[in-house]
Every structure is written in structure tokens, then in C-alpha cells.
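Sequence only, no structure available. Ideas?
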Amino acid sequence: MGDRRFVGAIDQGTTSTRFMIFDRAGNVVGMHQLEHRQIYPKPGWVEHDPLEIWEKTQIVVKGALEKSGVSPDELAAIGITNQRETTVVWNRRTGQPYHNAIVWQDTRTDKICSDLAAEGGQDRFREKVGLPLATYFSGPKIKWLLDNVPGLREAAEEGDAIFGNMDTWLIWNLTGGPDVGAHVTDVTNASRTMLMNLQTLDWDDEMLQVMGIPKQMLPQIRPSSDPDFYGLTRPDGPFGAEVPVAGDLGDQQAALMGQACYEVGEAKNTYGTGCFLLMNTGQRPILSKSGLLTTLAYKLGDQPAHYALEGSVAIAGALVQWLRDNLGIISSSAQVEELARSVEDNGGIYFVPAFSGLFAPYWRSDARGLIIGLTRYVNKGHIARAALEATAYQTREVLEAMEKDSGLRLKSLKVDGGMVRDELLMQFQADILGVSVVRPKVSETTSLGAAYAAGLAVGFWSGLDDLKSNWQADKAWEPHMETETKERLFAGWKKAVQRTFGWLEER
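Reply:
I predicted one. C-alpha cells follow.
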């Protein structure tokens, strides 16, 4: 055996699933990744096939082990991280889902949410669960399934139909599936259902009653890093051995963990399809007055849970894809920076990508996208630049809301995700925020965070100090813009955002 020990992480994302293997220094020693189908039965509906995802998970596990030459008995533990809120209900005796998974982006629960909000407003449960009533979260999705799948409610009441987000579905299958699989989730994933009480960290009876969800459907809530681990993988499964499954975190919380944001006031921003900004607020939940979400950051073993404020920007990298696929002004996402550099500035235009409304801090579903300030002078370089700048402006809006809610001042922002290779964007982000923006050496922070949670649980790493010493900066951008310029640009952005409101008439 010697000292050849590793930790693995399954990262089950919105578009793909991968398995990554890390060494003690947090370096990647193996990886395999596969995409899965996006199913769109109706406008606004998005589904995944849970059985396809389980099948792809098994293939990527075997693939990464083969490619890296790591044998299963060299794995100290594995962790899971997942697309949050995506909802599966399946039969605990057969392992068959009753319906496709309903994905976090899906808006079919619109009416359920507006009916519930009619009685006490969008924020009626915020104090208890930290979240506004929105189609984003799992609780209304479970209610939709119970109301619309024939026979499901009876099966749920009899204890045959069980619910899980993707973490729960994978852990159940990895630990043996029908009749024996561990039916568990962690505090971070549970905090995205609208069903967990932020204080007790347990399912809330009032919320279950309001949504009409039988308690016996729900998984047991466990720490994100669990020394008693959730279960062992089966020798006849993809690992071919018994490996402890000991870490579980929703993807954005896993990135916070992988970025070593363990101190109060430390924050990370993940620049993907959308942007997710999380700030560690320590051992107390801070309820937002500015449209942010109060969520769990992590819970390590029997230590007190840490909370976070979260702000999400719906469209970030997706806007660059839109320039590529819908407008055709670039042929690959990487070209956007080159095109944006062909001009000195945004030429006086702003691009507000409210394609499906605005998320934090506005939560306006009646807003729609807008390019404003157009003159004969403006060319496609200005449009590319304004598209990149939109991500930086939206990040500043979320960050200002966080500072207001928490009373904490940000000293620097740790960044990860696909867009952090775009140096023009990173410099503009530092300028518009007025703080340094830091990119880490290991950019796979989500998988790394899940590996950290699992490794801590089994003593592979001795504690958070161990993980902090692993974190190394790759590059930092310092703010250079004059305050007057920065504030003038940001004021223009806010004016542009106001112009997007109320475009959709309420039906």
C-alpha cells in the first residue's frame, strides 16, 4: 500500500457527470467526463433521465480509475457534489424512477409558487428556510410530481416512493440500491428544498404540510463531511471494492470548500452558465433583506454548521454562447475576448441579459434582455465587450447586496469556472469591484471541495489548515480604474437594468 492514497469525487452537473481523483496536495491525478441528454418536453420544462445519469456515473468512475492507474483500494474515500435542486422520485424496492428528474431551471411549478405566494407573499417562508418562493427549489417540484403522476401520492404515503436530489440518488445507488441503499442527503442540499428548517437542520413539519409532502419520502439529513460515512460502495458496483462514501455538498458549496473560504467574510464567485457568488457568514444564518438566499455552507462532522449568503446571476457564460450560437459574431466562446479587445471600451452601450427575467438581487420574472445606448458608432466589438461587462456588473450588484446584509467588507474575491480564463473580464471585474480578484492554481474547485469533505471525514487530511495550505493563487488582478470612471459606468448599468423591468405584461 505505502503512501499511495487518493480521494475521489463524483461531480454530477447539469450537462455532464465526471469522476476526478486527487492526491494529498489537491492535484488532479485522473478524470473522466460524459455529457447526458437535456430533455425539453414543453417550453420552460427541463428534464434529465436519472437512469441515464446513473449509467454515465458508473462509466466515468471506471474510466478515471483505468486512465489514472489508481486501484479502488487506494481510494481513502469518495465525495459527491451535484447540480442542486434537481428532483428525482423513485421506487425504493425496484430503483425505478416514477418520472424523469425535474431540473433546477424548470419553471413548470410557476402556478404552485404563485398560489403559495398569494397567501403571504414571495417571502412568507424566508425566515424559516432562507429562500423566497421560486420555481428554482425542490419542494414545489416534489409537490408537482405528487399532484401529476398517477398513483405516486399513494406510493409515497405507503413508503415506497422516495425523493432525492442527484446526490441522494447517486449515494443510494452506489451503496446498493433497492432495499439496502443509504437514503441520505447533506445539510447543503437539504437547504435548497424549501423543506429544511435553518435552525434545527431538520425537515420542517409546517413546510411539509404546506407543500403536501409525506415525511417518509425524505432522506435523512447528514453532515457534509461525515466520519460515520453514509455507506460503502458495493464490490459489484463501478468501484469494484468497498470505498467509504463520506462527503456530500451541493456544487456551489463544494466550490466554496474547494476555494478554502473557511473564514467569515470570505467569498467565491463561480463563472459558469450563470454566476454563483457565495460568502461564508459563519455559524449564524443571516436573513437577506436584499433578495439573496440564506443557505448552508457546510457542516463538518459534529462541529456547528456554517452558513452562507448566496446570490445568483442567471446568465453569464450563457451570454457568450448566445453571441456564438444565435448571433454568430464569434465561432467559439474563446474568441469573445479577442473581439472585445478590438475596441477601447463599450462604446456607450450596455447589454442586460435578462433572457428569462432577473435573479438576485431583483427576482423580476417580468424583465427581458436589452441592449441600450446604440449609435452608428457601435460595432460587434462593443457588443462583445458589453456582454463580458454585464457579468462583472451583475457580480457587483450581488456583492453589494451581500455586504449590506452581512455588514462584512470583502477584501478579495476568489474566482473559478469557465470564464476565469478571460483576462479582460477578470481585470474589468477587479476594476468595477475595487478589490483584487484571485484565480487559484487548481481550477476544479467543485470536485476538489467534494474530495476535501470526504477526505476530512476519514482523516486523509487532518483539518482545514491542511486544506488552506493546499490553496495556491495562480493569478491575481488588482483594480486600476479611477473611482469616478467606475461609478459612472456602474450608474449607467443600473439605469439600463431599470429599463428591462415590466416588459412582460402580467397575464
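The two ends are 66 Å apart (CA to CA).
Hope that gets you unstuck.
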